[in-house]
Amino acid sequence: MSASRRHGTERPWSSDRLGGYEFSVPSGWEHAAQSTADVSVFTAPEGTGQDSDGHRPSLVATLETCTVTTAQYSTQAMSEFMVQLPLLRILDVDLWAPTGLNPTSGRRLEFLHTAPGSLVHVTQYFVVHEGTAFALTLTCSERQLTRWDQMAWDLGDRVRINGATRHDAPEGPRAPVLPRLAEAASVRHGAPLEALSVLAPEQPFRSAGPVLTDEAAGLLLHLAATGEGPASGSDLESSPWTELVSAGLTEPGIGLSPQGTTVTGPLLEPAGRATLTAHRDGRETRLTLFHGAEGQTLLLAQTPVGSIGSDGQGILHPTPNGTRVDFLPLWRLAETCGSWLGITPAWRTAVEQAPVRLEDFDRRVTQQTPSPAGLDAALHAAWTEPWVVWQAEGDGGRVTYLHAGEAGHYLVESDGLDHVLLTSVPARNIHRHLSALLAPAGAGIGYREQPRDG
User: Which structural domain range is residue 223 located in?
Assistant: First the structure.
């Protein structure tokens, strides 16, 4: 047994192995009966980290023969997740490998999926090496992410190759054609990396609530503020009233329904408020959150403009015009708002506080422009990608980000003079930052500062 200390934390571990791969398990976690020679399953002790929704953290290690490249394996794995897991959303894909191997031989994936009564957060490490694929997967409730986040990083750090890993591949079908590659990232890392922009059309903005016309949304807000019912019978026959009745938000001849009263409750006594504003090619769209006192949030969203088309050329696929109305628990804020913004994984660059003239940046936000002279090579590539520049403002502060398509995500800061400073950040960090920025003060979720080195 050993201890790991990182960022001031210490955790006891036990060692386990599959084939030539050695990995660590938190001491006290239970080895499940369904484990085999190629699969090891562990669960947290009963009552340790179990969320109120009943989800119990687990750790699964697998080993299998592999006849494809890392890029192929990654693409296949993500495709299978999309088919098998309901309402999957892939948050991030990054390079990772055990010590001594080239990082391009493996990946670190993060994704969310829905289980009965729970939103599950998954961190998976896998490596393709000498005819095998080894994977280590941690799952926890999204509500418990801050509790298990550091352990997820420690798990990846502690994987070791300790013994022979080679498997003689059996005769079988020819390996599939290599997936479409991210050209700039592949050149930068000297290895074929799968294009991640293809994930965008597979992860559209989803909401369980209705889409209302602007007139119906305005009427809903009016009813919530005044408590008034219809002024006349003709009002009941108007399209806005009909929409609200169909959505279950009003009752004919009365006013707000019980559901409508619950949904609009945060408007009357908000425990907090937050906004997202997204800019794309001169267009602007907004999302507003009103937090209730009992951990629920009313979401009012205009058309999202963050979705990038499957061809990677910046084709927009907007939802119908109008206002999307939804009622969410706080722990679904980052997932829902990230989806509305169209945030998808992208290969991270090494850009760190690179200066760009404010005049050039502002002009590029509204239209396609030639890249300024002297830009970093990665930013030069980003300049030609479709841009979404967005701001988040709430109790957690105010922040601006740039999503430059396949060229990645950048934190946008001011130098206090006439330049903005761009810093590349992984999509997983934005997910965590959104939780803290948008939630009401004291909610205790996410990270108040951008965790740049996460």
Answer: 211-268
